[in-house]
Amino acid sequence: MTEVGRDLAGVETPFLWVDLDTMDENVGVLTGFLRDAGVAWRPHIKGIRAPGAALRLLDAGAIGVTCATVGEAEIMAEAGIHDLLVANQVVGERKYARVAALRRVADVKVAVDCDDTLSGLGRAAEAAGVQVGVVVELDVGMHRSGVQPGEPALALARRVRDTPGLRLAGVMGWEGHTAWLDDLDRKRQEIERSIRALVETAELLREEGCPVDIVSCGGSCTYSVAAEVPGITEVQAGGGVFSDVTYRTHGARTRPALFVRATVTSRPAPDRIIVDAGFKTLPAWINAPEALEVTGVREIGVSAEHGILRLDAPDHRVRVGDVLDFIPAYGDITVFLHDRLYAVRGGCVEHVWTIEGRGKVR
Fold it and tell me: Using CA atoms, how far apart are residues 273 and 266, in angstroms rounded to an integer?
């Protein structure tokens, strides 16, 4: 694209960009820690969504990627990534057929937490002449999806193992309920409790003759504890390579590398700044984004096309036409709003990554 090689200042706002030096530093933090822990890295790309960025993670040592949907897995396979985990339940005949077709070109595995989907997925796999990998998802404390650890998980694993067209690949869990805990001692204890339930269930399955190659868990705010519990084989932390206000607030060991750049379009009052990035570009729920070049910001609000910075005191230094960079509140709810991600080094656009995962919600 023509923007490659351009100074970042020449790109029209609003737009999403990533600082490659900081991103590479973040990747090094994750890969170094996991390497020392003896655990593989399968980063979740639900908040990354751009195959160009995902391929960079594989170049750094990731074994594959974790996806939220079949659609995400399909675009990653098209980009040449062949070790895929869809860490959600896949339901419906058309999706079973898509998974089976994807298995012809990639080692795709999907999560299950009950036996309602097994026969349909197995039939689709047999019809396509493939065997689809399955991981049993456990509820390790988040109380969202997942079968209970122990005997219930063992019973489901046996049914997976005995279903034609399916291959039992392992178990996974997500200790997401611990990510936002502020008490660090309690957070560590709860992460360890959750991951031990996952590991103990994996050991039970092996003792009962069920193959368990994968024991997968861990996010960007929990991996530093989860990866050190013996028995884990891989960690799914992905959003931390970009980081944001939410990850930084809740203990991620990485620095913000993802930004939205906006232009000041109005100064209607000395204590108010209006920019051209609203909730279609820079959402402000879960947390508020953070403005880098402005001090004394009391709050940031957004409407569809406008960002509104309200200041503690009058400030005449920021003028119409100035550009401001914002750290997104949460990358997962920001990246998917954009078509392109500008990858920047030293103020120069090095890559323009198409966010092909935009809209891939099924």
Answer: 6
DSSP code string of 125-178: HHHHT--EEEEEEE-SSS-SS-BPTTHHHHHHHHHHHTSTTEEEEEEEE--GGG
CA distance 309 to 272: 6
Cα–chain center distance at 172: 15
Domains of the chain and CATH, by start: 20-241 (3.20.20.10)
Note the Cα 9 to chain centre separation in Å. 29
- Please give the C-alpha separations between residue 177 and each of 170, 180, 224, in angstroms, as whole numbers: 22, 7, 16
For residue 237, the number of C-alpha atoms closer than 13 Å in the C-beta half-sphere is 32
Task: Quickly count: other Cβ atoms within 10 Å of residue 116's Cβ.
Answer: 10
Determine the average pLDDT of the residues in 319-328.
98
Per-residue pLDDT tens over the stretch 143-175: 999 999 999 999 999 999 999 999 999 999 999
Q: E-assigned strands of 20-161?
A: 40-41, 65-67, 83-89, 107-112, 132-138
Mean pLDDT of 62-77: 98
Predicted confidence (pLDDT) at residue 1 exceeds the cutoff of 60: no
Contact 206, 214 (CB under 8 A): no
Express each pLDDT in 90-128 by its tens digit.
999 999 999 999 999 999 999 999 999 999 999 999 999
Q: Is the pLDDT of residue 247 over 90?
A: yes
Strands (DSSP E) along the chain, which ranges? 15-19, 40-41, 65-67, 83-89, 107-112, 132-138, 166-173, 214-217, 234-235, 258-269, 272-275, 290-291, 297-302, 307-311, 323-327, 340-345, 348-354
Average pLDDT score over residue span 278-299: 95
For the beta carbon of residue 152, count every other beta carbon within 10 angstroms.
Answer: 17
Scan for tokens 């036409």, then name that residue: 321
